[in-house]
Design brief:
Chain lengths: ~210, ~130
């Protein structure tokens, strides 16, 4: 692991943290939060300060609750927090963007949109229902990283950084581009196999 | 660390304490449940534990004790937050744990009872007065 610009918790604190020791959790948060808060405020000056702070709080609370998911051997504490933080902000940004897009669509455009239910043929609707049912069945057979990848792929996400952030939560990433590509391909093969098993056509299942 | 930075750190941590105190998995959520059940105020709890405003806020932002070392963790939390009466806090946490366990047990029993309720348990026209 590279040297960090952040002052890190001690190995003893981290070792107690991953065992769920409440005192160690408090110590780690006390050491890390002010540094992370200042970093986040500088890195995301375009976002409201309250939003940045609230996201950071949510991420830290989540890490404290799911302490055993963090592996100090694989990533520095700050790297782990920052990856989660960026993922949350990316989701938030995506949500804000989609709300903005929906607001921009005026009534006449809405009437003409091909994906409005009334403009869909019965066959399209059946296809959509089958697709949704299929993905419900698929999600039960995927692990954490695969699920996150599938969610992003279905929403049309192309940003490599998002996929790298997800992957690094579950494994050490040494070659981001090829590891993301491999994970996507493996996921597609897995989905194809499940689809064949369930008797679905795999064409156009994922919007990639 | 200069004074300005130290004050800022404190403000940053105080905001975290206020946030964490209301989250599940932190002491604040357990103390809030106890206040509701016992009909007492946070001032009452503070007096019981022998702790000032600042440390009471910090206490509520501590993660809950681990189940396998519950009393020991609760005692360590009390000491870390400078409680004058740590045993009152340990007792409160144990009471909370018992309430949680009792609630979980009741839910489980209700679930199983519903599964085994048979038609004979239901009202029939013969039984109606």
């Amino acid at each position: 692991m590279d040297d960090s610009v952040f002052e890190q918790p001690t190995p003893d604190q981290l070792s107690a943290f991953v065992q769920g020791d409440p005192i160690a959790k408090d110590e780690v948060v006390s050491v890390m939060l002010p540094q992370l808060y200042r970093w986040a405020r500088n890195a995301y000056q375009n976002l409201p300060e309250d939003e940045v702070q609230s996201t950071l709080h949510q991420v830290l609370a989540e890490i404290c609750l799911n302490y055993s998911r963090y592996d100090p051997e694989r990533a520095k504490f700050t790297t782990y927090v920052i990856h989660l933080f960026r993922m949350r902000l990316a989701s938030l940004h995506q949500l804000i963007k989609s709300i903005g897009k929906n607001q921009e669509i005026n009534e006449s455009e809405y009437e003409n949109r091909s994906n409005v239910p009334y403009n869909k043929s019965e066959a399209d609707i059946h296809k959509q229902i089958a697709k949704d049912r299929f993905f419900d069945a698929v999600t039960a057979q995927l692990d954490g990283a695969e699920l996150e990848f599938l969610r992003q792929m279905r929403s049309g996400e192309k940003d490599l950084a998002i996929y790298v952030s997800i992957l690094s939560l579950y494994q050490a990433v040494t070659d981001p581009a090829s590891e993301v590509k491999n994970t996507k391909e493996r996921l597609k093969r897995k989905i194809k196999a499940i689809a064949e098993e369930l008797g679905y056509q795999t064409d156009d299942l994922i919007g990639e | 660390m200069d004074k300005q930075e130290s004050i800022d750190d404190k403000q940053i941590l105080n905001k975290w304490y206020r946030f964490a105190a209301n989250q599940p998995g932190f002491v604040g959520s357990a103390l809030a449940l106890l206040r509701g059940r016992r009909g007492i105020t946070s001032q009452h709890q503070q007096n019981d534990f022998g702790v000032g405003d600042e440390n009471f806020l910090r206490l509520q932002a501590m993660s809950l004790p681990r189940s396998q070392s519950f009393a020991n963790d609760a005692h360590r939390i009390a000491q870390t937050c400078g409680l004058a009466n740590p045993l009152a806090f340990v007792q409160s946490m144990m009471l909370w744990r018992n309430l949680e366990a009792a609630e979980a047990q009741t839910e489980k029993e209700e679930f199983y009872q519903a599964a085994f309720d048979e038609d004979s348990e239901l009202d029939t026209p013969d039984e109606e007065q």
